[in-house]
Amino acid sequence: xxxxxxxxxxxxxxxxxxxxxxxxxxxxxxxxxxxxxxxxxxxxxxxxxxxxxxxxxxxxxxxxxxxxxxxxxxxxxxxxxxxxxxxxxxxxxxxxxxxxxxxxxxxxxxxxxxxxxxxxxxxxxxxxxxxxxxxxxxxxxxxxxxxxxxxxxxxxxxxxxxxxxxxxxxxxxxxxxxxxxxxxxxxxxxxxxxxxxxxxxxxxxxxxxxxxxxxxxxxxxxxxxxxxxxxxxxxxxxxxxxxxxxxxxxxxxxxxxxxxxxxxxxxxxxxxxxxxxxxxxxxxxxxxxxxxxxxxxxxxxxxxxxxxxxxxxxxxxxxxxxxxxxxxxxxxxxxxxxxxxxxxxxxxxxxxxxxxxxxxxxxxxxxxxxxxxxxxxxxxxxxxxxxxxxxxxxxxxxxxxxxxxxxxxxxxxxxxxxxxxxxxxxxxxxxxxxxxxxxxxxxxxxxxxxxxxxxxxxxxxxxxxxxxxxxxxxxxxxxxxxxxxxxxxxxxxxxxxxxxxxxxxxxxxxxxxxxxxxxxxxxxxxxxxxxxxxxxxxxxxxxxxxxxxxxxxxxxxxxxxxxxxxxxxxxxxxxxxxxxxxxxxxxxxxxxxxxxxxxxxxxxxxxxxxxxxxxxxxxxxxxxxxxxxxxxxxxxxxxxxxxxxxxxxxxxxxxxxxxxxxxxxxxxxxxxxxxxxxxxxxxxxxxxxxxxxxxxxxxxxxxxxxxxxxxxxxxxxxxxxxxxxxxxxxxxxxxxxxxxxxxxxxxxxxxxxxxxxxxxxxxxxxxxxxxxxxxxxxxxxxxxxxxxxxxxxxxxxxxxxxxxxxxxxxxxxxxxxxxxxxxxxxxxxxxxxxxxxxxxxxxxxxxxxxxxxxxxxxxxxxxxxxxxxxxxxxxxxxxxxxxxxxxxxxxxxxxxxxxxxxxxxxxxxxxxxxxxxxxxxxxxxxxxxxxxxxxxxxxxxxxxxxxxxxxxxxxxxxxxxxxxxxxxxxxxxxxxxxxxxxxxxxxxxxxxxxxxx
Length: 997
Known about the structure:
The longest helix has 23 residues, at 569-591. The radius of gyration is 31 Å and the shape is globular. By secondary structure, the protein is α+β, with helices and mostly antiparallel strands. Strands 30-27-26-39-34-40-41-48-47-46-43-44 form a twelve-stranded mixed beta sheet. Strands 5-17-16-19-14-11 form a six-stranded antiparallel beta sheet, with no helix packed on it.
């Protein structure tokens, strides 16, 4: 009887609770679903929401939806608007009820990232620690750059970030060969492509904000690697102060040419140790290395972490720009390679790193082990595992034969001293799975022993978050992008991180970063960029790390519409800056700190002579229309003398600096903007040189600031990149280009055979670094000007256009146009950029030439851009003919790279010149050159292309102009440039001279 009564009571209660729900009928539910779908679809591509249940009463309506609603980027304001939209379609009796929406097993208010929660209820939960942020503290960071003249205070100082750039070359055991993990499409493959964001852009941005960034792949694209170790004779030396160097424990030694699974170079050697001193005489360790050739090299150090390790070991790197000092926290990170920075070294044997035992606190322990300079080639040998071997077949062990930066994480992690449990969780049987699994285990190996993993063994590095940078697959047959997808996972370890933080902090990170990316792209270059879902899925890289982790699928490397943007350096900078800003917002929200975004690079740079033998360096700040906090509060000016390296910089709070100069030497300058959030990327380089008793003063104007993707076109049946017509201009260098496109047929867009699919490309450059715009051409031109006996100053074209620099003060002007031309980005909705002669520049040059000026211009598109460019006008053509005295005679003027002087003018040497028309690591490629025809009285051809006798250079004696249809800086050698510059200046200035100021 009691059982029947209880059953009746429960049924009565259940029926009372559900009775009002009968008023939310199927029609209303479908309308709610349509309403939510419309809202989600405004932000999320293909947004669709299905109503799975409703629990309604007059006080509260709970609506349970499909996972599609959770893809929406919830904020307090848009959630209130969503509630209002839902309330409007509810039956009248529920319109005063509070509304709760549930998706992916979560009330959607809980999907608002902490960074955007301001409501009182949330702040109360935070105070009571019902909501726990993810923080991972240490008293001092892993590495501090002590020689930097400005340090961020509201950036990412003290924060540690684990970051990786998707896949890499791996050993395919079933196929018994090394291969890429992804297809070769659109001139690249994902294994290399994502590196072209991470290495040149994202990592430096994070580091400029003060973060320590760890990568599980080699970050240096330098093919040479030089090791210096305490266990190798002649590479290491000690000097003793009162505290003496003593034997340490196990450390690095390079005892093998190749390494097999289980062989660890960090177990083959020894370390040295010494007690620290706070004053008095120091003990030092010094490493020497023989650098094979001039170039930029990454410098890593290794050491042993022991009880009592110092947290401020003082390392000094000796390079062509001087000395740079670092404080390394040896209480963490022992037994692996710790990155200090990239530095310019000259060739030959030289000291590279010094370590001292000076510290803030005496009596602690400094350890010394090895130094690694450069990236090098892979040295991990692989073969087929025993389980896959067939009787009678010989299996050789072999390395990849590729530079180490091309390889996957599994091989770097072995070279970097990690345990086999980290780099081969599949126990040597499956390199493909080892690669992505090892990246996740590596994060935990870094964190082991830190605040958030106190009971695990590891390097004790307090990682705050991790981000995996990937690109995705997928094809659209129209101009639509696939767009951006974010992936995270929240259900591991009962949904909590060590310390109690909710694993939905990973969703916070993913949402913030993804929102920043999509917003910046839409506001800048592609308003219809697609935002995809926020997937809560158990991807290994998202599930295993013990810190909040995001997998970013930025775009489809298979889709032409995506890659038209994704191949452009401007897009890569934009996206990387968006990711950095998202990371900054996320981490600042966890530590409840205000943040400031580092500034954009400065512009309008100039270096001009001032009184008392000085040079005035000036510039203008750039305001960021996407970020109000990114205003600069100061600047750092870096100086290079002759062909040395740049120094550590000087701080100034004004947009100019007076610099002392020694006569006869070339001083070069680049400038960064700084604020509380960090340091911007550097400006272009300007240079100046005072020649005692010089023949005159020349102004070098750098009008070549183009960086862009190769020429891309889409027609009815064809689509692709036409690198032979215009290969674009990399930003300093391209580390992802593997070869030109071969398949342009749109009918092959969905072909599943990679080698014949739309976008299939060659692979002859997949191990090469391709040179681009160095932004250092005033030095190249100026060096030849100085050798001809003229003093020179230099300025960016923007400084000239803005009238910040007066041309009339100079005997001659050398205008650098390189590969400048009008180009778009992606499908072109943002308009054109990089015109050769802007209306402002034309006006300045007209005035200068009307006042008896002398002008030298060189570039690949000096005529093409004015006659057939996207912004070409009749006024452009008139300017070329009336002021510069040439007209257009066609582009693609020559296939060979040879030019011969043909004029009988006595001022020109009868020589042949060669320009660079192939891919090189340190020079940009000139694939097209212009043919010119003289225009107007006194104009005549000076040089012709050897293969067809078309005119390559036009001079005008009456107006003192000389124009070349190929770039001066692209000439093969210094000897050629010096000879030609002397002839040009002799022709332009003749007997005219002017002394130094």
